Amino acid sequence: MTASAARMADGARDPLSAPAGRVDTRAADKPLRLRPPGSGRGLYDLSLEELSHLLADQPPYRLRQVWESLYRQAALPEQMTALPKDLRQRLSETVPAALRLVSESVSGDAQTVKWLWAGNDGVGVETVLMLYRDRATACVSSQAGCAMGCKFCATGQAGLARHLSPGEILEQVAEARRRALPRRLTNIVFMGMGEPLANYERLWASIERIHNDMAISARHITVSTVGIVPGIRRLSHEALPVNLAVSLHAANDALRDRLVPINRRYPISDLVEACRQYRAVKNRRLSFEWALIDSVNDSPSDARELAEIASGLGAHVNVIPLNPTDGFATRGTPPAGVRRFRDELLALGVNVTVRRNRGTEIDAACGQLSARDTKAAAEA
Ligand code: SAH
Ligand code: SF4
Predict the structure, then answer these.
(1) CA distance 261 to 119
(2) CA-CA to 305 of 20 to 30 Å: which in 21, 94, 154, 287?
(3) Among 139, 146, 153, 366, which one carries the catalytic annotation?
(4) pLDDT of residue 361
């Protein structure tokens, strides 16, 4: 069992009925009183040790066989055809999946798939799989909703329901891995619903499993954060060097305070310092996300301020034309303005890419995940 998994299992006398652990609020904006993740623990919440108890009556090789089927092949118990039928059934019944599929949307070109799930308490969770020529990326949620309240983000507009457990995070990855076949799922980005660093312990327990058991390297795992400074510092002490993406969106405190409320707690100077430390310790790619909002953060002076910060840190900038959401009236910068902003950054020596808008038609693009219809769908 990994250190984080051990912490998660702490105090779990009866591994199958125990709650998924205490809610960790240390890295969050303010202490949150939340229900703990779903009432039951799913298949991917089990530690190896807990699984061994479940398989106590089986030949010794079963443990490895089931574990590898779960993680390497991302197979569900009913798909583990090498197992005796009664064992498959027992596993499905005693440790069912923690997320139930509510709906699947596929883009016209079939390269983007969005799943809407319901936790066993009915909360909505969304996951997006994006297939590219050279890679397959799962955009994974770390919380049901988000407490950070960024004005332009559909998830933030809906507020936070609760944290996801490691098993709920891993189930999303496993489904993406199955669905990507025969392609290999190569990249994991924590850019779905929620603020990953506000659910630190569970996030990290899932990352260790993704790395150790699903064999996806840390170089291909990206944690995107709104800028939770203590969380970034903590990340820099972990053994696995994951990529860090910081959702900057504004390079001066006056504007960032308005767009990203957590900036009032962790202002840009502190954030930049934490990023500098992360880069120094981990030597990993650092990127800034910049949702380009018409006449809000797309002026030449915005480009200059951003360039100053990005150049100082050797950071890459991802410009994302703002995707429309119901709760934010201002629209994204039109294409000509996006090109101009990109060219200004390039001229200032910044490494910049404009992110293609994937999945807008199925509300699967950045900032559009809200799981707004889950409750209704779950009750249907
Ligand atoms: N909470 C984390 C990760 C999830 S959001 C974070 O904020 O980084 C994933 C990315 O989508 C973030 O960069 C976020 O700022 C951006 N985003 C949010 N709303 C958006 C919108 N309407 N259009 C484009 N990008 C958006
Ligand atoms: Fe939360 Fe990220 Fe959306 Fe902000 S942008 S509300 S941190 S999910």
Answers:
(1) 28
(2) 154
(3) 366
(4) 73
- The two structure tokens encoding residue 379: 């009750």
Told to judge if 366 belongs to the known catalytic residues of this protein, a careful annotator would answer yes
- Is residue 175 within 6 Å of ligand 1 at its C-beta? no
The verdict on whether 126 is a catalytic residue reads yes
Query: What separation in Å is there between the alpha carbon of 60 and the centre of ligand 2?
Result: 45
Report the distance separating Cα 334 and Cα 337, nearest Å.
Answer: 5
159 in helix, strand or coil? coil
Residue 315 near ligand 1, beta carbon < 6 Å = no
Ligand 2 centroid – CA 150 distance (Å): 5
Note whether 153 and 325 are within 8 A (CB): yes
| Protein residue whose Cα sits closest to atom 19 of ligand 1 | 367
Atom of ligand 1 nearest to the CA of 289: 13
pTM value? 0.88
Residue 354 has pLDDT above 80, yes or no: yes
Q: Is 95 helix (H, G, I), strand (E, B) or coil?
A: coil
Q: Are 284 and 243 in contact (CB under 8 A)?
A: yes
- Which atom, in ligand 2's list, is nearest to the CA of 157? 6
- Phi/psi for 136 (5° steps) reads -130, 125
Our answer on whether the CB atom of 290 is closer than 6 Å to any ligand 1 atom is: no
- What are 178's two structure tokens? 């199955």
**Does the beta carbon of 344 lie inside 6 Å of ligand 2?**
no
Question: Is the omega angle on the peptide bond into residue 182 within 30 degrees of 0, that is, cis?
Answer: yes
Tell me which amino acid residue 289 is.
E
pLDDT the model gives residue 69? 97
pLDDT score of 348 more than 50: yes
Q: Quick one: average pLDDT of 2-7?
A: 31
Q: At 105, phi and psi to the nearest 5?
A: -120, 140
Pick from 149, 151, 145: which is nearest to 328 by CA? 151
366 ligand 1 Cβ < 6 A: yes
**Cβ(320)–Cβ(292) below 8 Å:** yes
Take residue 164 and report the two structure tokens written for it.
């996801």
Burial 171-182 (b: 16+ CB within 10 A, else e): bbbbbbbebbee
Which domains does the chain carry? Answer: 3-39+99-379 (3.20.20.70), 47-94 (no CATH)
